[in-house]
Specification:
Blueprint lengths: L4 E4 L6 H4 L7 H5 L12 H4 L1 H5 L4 E4 L11 H5 L6 H16 L3 H6 L2 H8 L3 H9 L1 H10 L16 H7 L11 E5 L1 H6 L2 H13 L3 E3 L8 H5 L3 H15 L8 E3 L2 H13 L6 H9 E3 H10 L12 E6 L2 H5 L5 H6 L5 E5 L18 H18 L3 E4 L2 H11 L2 E3 L1 H8 L5
Parallel strand pairs: 3-4, 3-5, 5-6, 7-8, 7-9, 9-10
Antiparallel strand pairs: 1-2
Helix pairs in contact: 13-23, 16-17, 21-22
Length: about 425
Amino acid sequence: MSSETILDLDEFGLRASLDACVKCTICETQCPVARVTDLFPGPKFVGPQGERYRGGAISVDHSIDYCSSCGTCTLVCPEGVKVAEINHHARTAMKEQQGIPLRDKLISRTTLMGAVMTPVAPLANWALANKPIRKIVEGVVGVHADAPMPVAEGRSFEAWFRRHTPQPESGTRGQVIFFHGCAGEYFEVQTSIRSVEVLEHLGYEVLVPHHGCCGLALQSNGLYDDSRKYVSRLTEQLRSVNRDAPIVTSSGSCGGMLKHEAREILEMDTPELRDVSSRVFDICEFLLALHDRGELDEDFQRMDVTLPYHAPCQLKSAGMGLPAVQLMELVPGVHVVESGQPCCGIAGTYGLKKEKYEVAQAVGKPVFDFIKETNPEIAVCDTETCRWQLRKGSGAHVIHPIEVIHEAYGLRS
């Protein structure tokens, strides 16, 4: 089998973007993977530069598989070249030719993982913490024995939501739809619960139509067709209730999938996705917009604390700035220090894979050290897999920003 795959970039509408590359190497200097390993020669080398040598097609080898798809290269490019998107398609083309490993197919089914683990949470958590079992899994499946794993909670968020009694203020200022994502449904349930409680405290009736996975993990592992099916199903589910209501999420990665990646990577442009994408708001983005309009309840209790904060790649790729920092600093006594690092290394499922685990840990080390130096007890991050990585790497209790706001309001779950 040939080690090269030929990719027609015109098929993905990326040619105009690619031709703007001036070979400035900014993407190379900012790439978090290239700075810690020689296994990845850099985003320009495997992307725009390779394309120029081949006149309309790009030849890629196995080195491109070490790209984590963090999106930093696209974010920092002064010419607007979609470097990450070009490289993502090139890597997928290579995987399709060589065959996608069973491991990548399994770890992409996050809903299945959550549904299986939740009813047997104590047993599942014990197994994932058992080193001999993890060593067997590493050898058979290819998930590194030391990779961070989620903790099953024993109940799903939707199960809680069906039984909970809305707060008295709920519904006094309209409706919002809450999009929990897979991890928010099964593993980060408290984050979802506290998000709903904050929204209800602010007067919103929260609607939660039953919904499933956004397909991000599938897309990240090259399973584009399956991912498109997930996106299509999810947009139908989220549109099954109030089609004028904002869609609010505390899952930064899942929100980014609907706002950015489904269009930029999967090349989806359905009316349903355009509708949903236009109404999706990260919860910190949503609350900060209320503040900017003078509509946010700012009767916060004082919290004297310095919070190390890491902004996830997905959030930065969405181009919304750092709303969590501004929001948390509305609380008297809260001082937020941003990590300034491009990536924590986990990149969804990237850091779980045995051949990439050491790379992911090296990428994340500056963030781990930053947390230990700033406040080793507690840190803040917007996305679930990043929190798992930071908890394991730093030893700190890593929470979503909404938990700070929830406590500042004096709410009790």
